[in-house]
Write a structure and sequence with these properties.
Elements lengths: L33 E5 L4 H12 L3 E6 L8 H9 L7 E5 L5 H11 L3 E4 L6 H6 L1 H21 L5 E7 L22 H20 L2 E7 L2 E2 L8 H13 L6 E3 L5 E2 L2 E2 H11 L8 E3 L5 E2 H11 L4 E4 L6 E4 L5 E5 L17 H7 L8 H20 L1
Parallel strand pairs: 1-2, 1-4, 2-3, 4-5, 5-6, 6-11, 7-10, 8-15
Antiparallel strand pairs: 9-12, 13-14, 14-15
The protein binds guanosine-5'-diphosphate-alpha-D-mannose.
Length: 378
Amino acid sequence: MGCHTGAGSNITNAIPMPAQTPTTPATDSRTHRSAFITGITGQDGSYLTEHLLAQGYTVHGLVRRASMFNRSRIDKIRARQEYPADQLVLHYGDLSDLTSVRRLLRQISPREVYHLAGQSHVGLSFEIPEVTCHEIGMATLGLLEALRDLDYPVRFYHAASSEIFGSPVVSPQTENSPFNPVNPYGCAKAFATQLCRVYRRAYGIFSCSGIAYNHESPRRGENFVTRKITLGATRIRHGRQAVLHLGNLEAKRDWGYAPEYVVAMWRMLQLESPEDFVLATGRACSIREFVAAAFAENGLELAFEGRGVEEIARRKDTGEVVVKVDSRYFRPIESSELVGDASLARKSLGWAPQTIGTDVASLMARAESEQVRLEQAG
Ligand code: GDD
């Protein structure tokens, strides 16, 4: 653990003392705004970092060695040099190595902890269920235990997911809807969400879960369907790809815009008392509609034909097939149409999503085009 400045790395030495030296931080972060983020290199981690830096926080992020080559989002924030280097500090570490995480928490004494880390791909959770459950379930438990032992109060945000509802018995879902996950990822998130409730009640820990529905952005990983679609549509427009292969086009998701969601995460930790919140737009749109919007933003109108694995989409102008369904991307069980009711967030956090469904598709497609323009400009 501790902090290393490796060759080619711009992770700074977070604490100017040997890694094993305990306790007193150089500045007492209990007296000013400081946050610790697990999963800082991810989409949400990077937007949350920007939000917190803009609020004057010192942000500490946990980075796995394995993320060395997957840090582009957070590295770009650092490269902009808008903030002093010591306002954003990255620490090598791993939630499976909890002793060192405990030590780190003691050293930096954050006022707020945002726990965003963990295997986040639902489809992949069927391939690697044990890793998924360890990274989500046991890591959250370990963090809660670590917080329980601290001698100062910390506010804890847990990134829960709509996948805890899986095949929901009510629609739209609220904070009180019963859990009914249908994949290992959802099971692990349900476990972690319930633990946050238990630790809140049993030990008075300020722990709360944001039950977030899908939230996307140009920083989304390419293995999630929205980014795969917007990237594919742009590549097809520029002749860099012939066909986009997708799984279930019937699935519907409640899609919002990630930068708006991190604001709600932060507001949750500013409340008087901890509470769970559904973070959602309240509207669902299908993968097919998202595809159509992303291609339309690229000036390509599509005509869909066929059903199930036979479904294709052709360009209306040339008749070329540009989208095909590929059963390799189907999941053993598909979560039902998940739609969230964020009334409580609206009331208590003053939060309401602005960018919804196909607007997100258009925004992401425009960002891909801008990226191509920048590449072409050299
Ligand atoms: N990934 C992927 N790739 N999904 C596809 C594809 C494909 O080629 N084709 C169709 N889909 C469908 C999936 O079957 C699913 O119904 C839907 O597209 C969305 O898939 P993902 O983008 O992988 O997201 P997710 O809904 O499973 O999970 C995301 O949202 C959750 C709720 O916020 C992830 O971000 C989770 O970590 C998050 O908890």
